[in-house]
Amino acid sequence: MKQIGVGILGFGTVGAGVAGGLLAHREVMARRLGVDIVLRKVADLDITTDRGVAVPADVLTTDAESVVADPSVDIVVETIGGTGIAKKLVLAALAAKKCVVTANKKLLAEFGREIFDAAEKSGVDIYFGASVGGGIPIIRVLREGLSGNEIESIYGILNGTCNYILTRMEREGLPFDEVLKDAQRLGYAEANPSLDIDGFDTAHKACILSALAYGFQPQLDQVQVEGIRGLSGMDVKFAADLGYRIKLLAVVAKEGDEVEVGVHPTLIPLDHMLAGVNDAFNAAMVKGDLSDRTMYYGRGAGREPTASTVIGDIGDIARNLAHGETRYQRAVPNYAEGRVALRAAGDIASKFYLRFMLEDRPGAIGAVAAALGRHGVSISALSQKGAREGKEPVPVVAMTHRAKASALDAALDEIRASGVTGEEPVKLRVL
Ligand code: HSE
After folding, report:
1. N or C: which end of the chain has fewer CB within 10 A?
2. Domain residue ranges in the chain
3. What class is the 345-430 domain?
4. Which residues face 427 on adjacent strands?
């Protein structure tokens, strides 16, 4: 049986999971794929810490460049993360005509075009299945299973850390910081958790999905990104009282020749399938014009689930290489080159949840309702949560009908200027 050599760059959470999985499943993969996948090298600056995987001593090295150059390594797996050394090594591997597997969403969201072009130039494959959705092979679904569809929309819960935090805040009434610490301990969170809680990790993934679905990868700084930092337990509770659960939702959708790409904490009706996606689980609901709605659910973070998808990619490449398929597999996005544009944030229409802290006095709610009305934003439900006349401001929650974001923002500016609310109003989208 032909042997295909693998070199892993980065022996952290994911790298160790991939090494362990390749060693444990070598035989079953050989039977399934007809190729013997051999772990040749694992590189990391720290090769002394125990990662819970029994990797032979001669496989470990601190010299990542030697792994890329090693003639016995056919597939280079990048699990370092970030855009510094990881980018340099991925480009070096592609230039050396090595196939690459990466789980690095930040790298692809920021430099995808450069990296995919390098792969195309060398005529080798780059697979990135674990860059979105961890253990859910959603990339493969878009690339293969749904390739005959016009994709109308993708709604994704794509960050395990945020979903874990939101779930425990809602269920247990725990404070944000305490739950974040647990997510870090469980290996869900990024080294810099701001990427998770400020929504950028989800935005990276949304950009990759947009590239696959529409051949359109927006610049990250053009994408509307709202995270969950500062989300109040009060809104989690009021949303629940109204029959909703708050999730950090990625939206990738197309209407005409405009693509919407955004990340927002969003109220999801409790009877919607996405509202049932809890803890560190992820899901993506994809609507194709032929398939209609399909949904993919699984563990979006963590060592073994992410390793599962990385190893699936390695298996695919190994099978191609072993069976003489050296042709470039077009696993990368087919760029639409100017045929679509990003939809302006103000043009996006949605229902909204609004919370104001109002003085409990005559005319306060009237001022809010009048400003919304002047800008054509129609209220579908309004409730004052408690009554403390003359004392502290009271929360007033309004649900709107579908309204354009620019109209709502103009109304909120008027409400701020009217002085009825001391605190910044809370505005959340409703699915
Ligand atoms: N930090 C990410 C998450 C890991 O929490 O989902 C998977 O990309």
Report:
1. N
2. 3-134+303-322, 139-300, 345-430
3. alpha beta
4. 354
> What H or E segment, with its residue span, contains residue 249?
strand 244-255
Among 132, 201, 303, residue to substitute to test ligand 1 (most atoms within 8 Å of Cβ): 201
- Whole-angstrom Cα distance, residue 43 to residue 66? 9
Instruction: Retrieve residue 247's tokens.
Output: 């999730």
For all residues of the chain together, what is the average pLDDT? Answer: 93
Q: Which atom of ligand 1 is nearest to the CA of 196?
A: 1
Torsions phi, psi for 255 (to 5 deg): -135, 120
Q: Give the residue among 301, 306, 299, 333 at the shortest CA–CA distance from 78.
A: 306
Upper half-sphere CA count for residue 345 (Cβ side, 13 Å): 12
pLDDT beyond 60 at 330: no
How many angstroms separate the alpha carbon of residue 31 from the centre of ligand 1?
A: 32
What mean pLDDT is predicted for residues 4-31?
Answer: 97
In sequence order, which ranges of 289-334 are alpha helices (DSSP H)?
Answer: 303-322
Q: Which CATH class is domain 3-134+303-322?
A: alpha beta
Whole-prediction pTM = 0.93
CA atoms within 13 A on the CB side of 20: 18
CATH architecture group of domain 139-300: 2-Layer Sandwich (3.30)
Cβ-proximal residues to 24 (8 Å cutoff; 6+ apart), any chain: none
The bridge status of strand 60-61 relative to strand 394-400 is: unpaired
Cβ contact 5:74 at 8 Å: yes
239 CA from centroid of ligand 1 (Å): 25
User: What ligand 1 atom has the least distance to the C-alpha of 306?
Assistant: 7
- From CA 15, how far away is CA 290, in angstroms rounded? 38
pLDDT the model gives residue 422? 79
Question: How remote is the CA of residue 101 from the centroid of ligand 1, in Å?
Answer: 17
- pLDDT by residue (tens digit) across 388-404? 656 688 999 999 999 99
